Amino acid sequence: MTAVTARALIRTEAAGGGRTRLETLRSDPPLTLRQTGPRRVHLVSTGAGPLRGDHLELGVDVAPGTSLEVRSVAATLVLPGLADAPSAMVVRARVGAGATLCFSPEPTVLAAGCAHRLVVRLSLAEDATVFWREELVFGRHGERPGRGHARFDATVAGRPLLRQDLLVGEEPVDGSPAVYVDARCVGSTLLAGPAWAPRAVPDDKRERRAVLGDGWAALPLAGPGVQVCALGADAVQLRERLRRGEEAAAAVPSPAPTGLDGLLGTPGAETGRPWP
Predict the structure, then answer these.
(1) pLDDT per residue as tens, the chain (276 positions)
(2) Chain segment 211-221, per-residue pLDDT in tens
(3) Strand order in the sheet with 55-62
(4) Using an 8 Å Cβ cutoff, are 161 and 225 in contact?
(5) Would you call 13 helix, strand, or coil by DSSP?
(6) What is the DSSP letter of 256?
(7) Burial class (CB in 10 A: 0-12, 13-18, 19+), 126
(8) For residue 251, how many other CB atoms are within 10 A of its CB?
(9) Which class for 1: exposed (0-12), middle (13-18), buried (19 or more C-beta within 10 A)?
(10) Which stretches within the chain are classed as H helix?
(11) Coil, strand, or helix at residue 43?
């Protein structure tokens, strides 16, 4: 079986009057892109996998002053395959000045026997705003997970904001009570932008503090961002816990974050929750 290499690209441009136009929407099966709104794109998998040996890349280029929302229509099921090399999904995203990106695909499921690398390289301009959610499920129902390594690197104006590694399917990690305990899913959300920047003048009433809940934590970063981390027994519980952490993170900035409100609607107006 031949390994698959695919490269897809989304690029926006300003269309005048504050509107966003999708300047480029280039699919490369199994990475198939569909425009589902004026500034919304869904990723549709038009093939099985990824399988071992497959290498998939998605480029996202959000032009200055534009907004983009990227979702997927279903979870990604990572399968074993016959190759010795791991499969890889690499996402490279650039968010320009005053631009907004919401990246919120459905979970990635690490099926038994797979070996997978998930790599994110996210570059933000000084005044860009980002909501980025990732969810990993440890195998299908009743099976042990395959091996997964998720690497996330985010920079703002070239300065590091977040560097994170997650390992799944390694016995010392999975069996440690200090890591996943008995959880079957792990996820994180990055909320980044000027609204989350540390205050130049300390204000005890609005000091950025970590917020902890049942199975989740919202952790302020040294730069302009908050990271939400959560564990769950299943994908439903994980999503709910991430949303609770996102609500806590969204309550920190003042004024409310610009850009994401316009992209996703007024926080809480319809769903009672600030984000997707």
Answers:
(1) 678 999 999 999 999 888 999 999 999 999 999 999 999 999 998 877 799 999 999 999 999 999 999 999 999 999 998 878 999 999 999 999 999 999 999 999 999 999 999 999 999 999 999 999 999 999 998 888 899 999 999 999 999 999 999 999 887 777 676 678 788 999 999 999 998 988 766 555 666 789 999 999 999 999 999 999 999 999 999 999 999 999 998 875 443 344 455 544 433 333 334 446
(2) 999 999 999 99
(3) 20-26, 5-14, 55-62, 87-95, 115-124, 147-156, 159-168
(4) yes
(5) strand
(6) P
(7) middle
(8) 13
(9) exposed
(10) 171-174, 235-250, 260-264
(11) strand
- The answer to whether 103 touches 132, Cβ cutoff 8 Å, is yes
User: Residue 141 class from Cβ within 10 Å (0-12 exposed, 13-18 middle, 19+ buried)?
Assistant: exposed
| Per-residue tokens: 208 | 């950025």
Biggest CA–CA distance in the chain, Å, is 61
Phi first, then psi: give them for residue 173, nearest 5 degrees. Answer: -85, -50
Burial class of residue 201, CB neighbours in 10 A (0-12, 13-18, 19+):
exposed
pTM: 0.89
Joined tokens for residue 11: 């690029």
Burial profile 149-175: b = 16 or more Cβ within 10 angstroms, e = fewer: bbebebebeeeebbeeebebbeeeebe
* 91 residue type, one letter: V
The SS3 call for residue 239 is helix
**Single-letter code of the amino acid located at 265:** G
The two tokens of residue 21 are 């136009």
